[in-house]
Design a protein that fits this description.
Layout: H1 11-25, E1 33-39, H2 46-53, E2 58-63, H3 70-78, E3 82-83, H4 91-94, E4 101-106, H5 115-124, E5 126-131, H6 134-144, E6 154-157, H7 165-186, E7 193-197, H8 201-212, E8 216-220, H9 224-232, E9 236-237, H10 240-246, E10 248-252, H11 265-269, E11 275-279, H12 283-286, E12 299-307, E13 324-325, E14 338-349, E15 357-360, H13 378-393, E16 405-406, H14 419-432
Parallel strand pairs: 1-2, 1-4, 2-3, 4-5, 5-6, 6-16, 7-8, 7-10, 8-9, 10-11, 11-15
Antiparallel strand pairs: 12-14, 13-14, 14-15
Helix pairs in contact: 1-2, 1-13, 1-14, 7-8, 13-14
Amino acid sequence: MLHTALPLNPPNLAEAFFRKVVSETSLDGVGEATAIVFAHGFKSGLPYFKALASCFKEVYFVPKKSSRDEWLESVLRKLGWKVLDPFGVPDNLAGLSFQKKVFVFDVGGKLAEYPHFLRQLQEAHEVFVIEDTENGHQKYEAFRHSEGFDGTMRVASVARSILKDPEDYWTGRGIVEAVETLLRLHHGMLYNRATVFGYGKIGRSIAHALREKRLTVQVVEIDRTRAVLARCHGFDVVEKSAAFEEGGFLFLATGSGKKPKGIKVKDLVAAKGDSIVTCVTSPDDEIGDWEEEDFMSQCRPIETYETLTDLSNDSASGGLAGVQSIEGLGSSEESPKLLTARTPHLHEFARETGPRLIIVNEGRPPNFIYGASCGPYIFLVQAALLAAAARLGSDISPLGGDRIEELSDWTDNDSKYGKDEDLIFKLWGEKWIG
């Protein structure tokens, strides 16, 4: 019998939860407005997307490049959404006509990378941005101090909300499980040491999950307070150069690749020990010059070796993609033919000599391979996005526009959490705990 700490996730349960959130936060009273939704294209997000569809006059959906789903996009079109090509942003947004109020549900600070477009959007519309991630939070903070910010656009972030903690915890563990699954399927766990770059919430989860698997784990962290926390949790804190000297499993969880002290391609290539590199966010955020160096073009798929007797099909061409026989090796019944097969999601930096440098999932987070599920905990974050949008649309700012707004800013005196955070925990608990 399957035992779970929480009931499984029937869609009607999630949809009922979101209907309650929309009603209790009054997001359904936002009026005639446009929503531009940047999000991962996972089927599990459909109840959240339906909630958005019920509140906005028109919705434009921009799926993340790394997580598109044709079935989901077809369903969203039936809901009346317009699905845009993520590779065309922001040009494919610039020519569109929006309602007076525009709500941008962003992830990773995508639009903050285009200050010229945001400046034009502010000139013609009331703009409200709701950001999901810490990386995006920092990008919008930088934008607010740039010339492109005219002081009218309001930005709220749920990245530092207590509602985000469960998702970050399960994301970190999911990344470790995904890497282990890939390697056990094709190679086995090659190393017993690992370095986690960045000891934020996801990096912390990764470090603890790796230690539970009996790996020797160290941390690279330049923030003094988080470095102290890592030491308090029993991890050695080392310099970036020392980590690349040793190699092993390298988990990049800083989101700060473009900053002066961020990780660059040259750091990876100069590593003196065999290394397997995993990015926790997008590769261009973790590795500052990833796109400029066109790094993946310098890598080749890893090949593994299997015999015909290992395969479920009787012939070498029986459906095993990318399989080639190795010339010169025996093919008799006494000596089964040996085959090479390209390993999915693992690529190696192409060089004739030197330590091996393996990139997991072409630099994308590996948990996406398996759906990146966080169970019903993801609904806490999605509900937080809805509540933040409702707050921005209510014309009541507790900060007077001085900084990025957070749900904890709208609070009662007797609670350290925001009113909406307490409400969402209560509504979520009624559905999944009882």
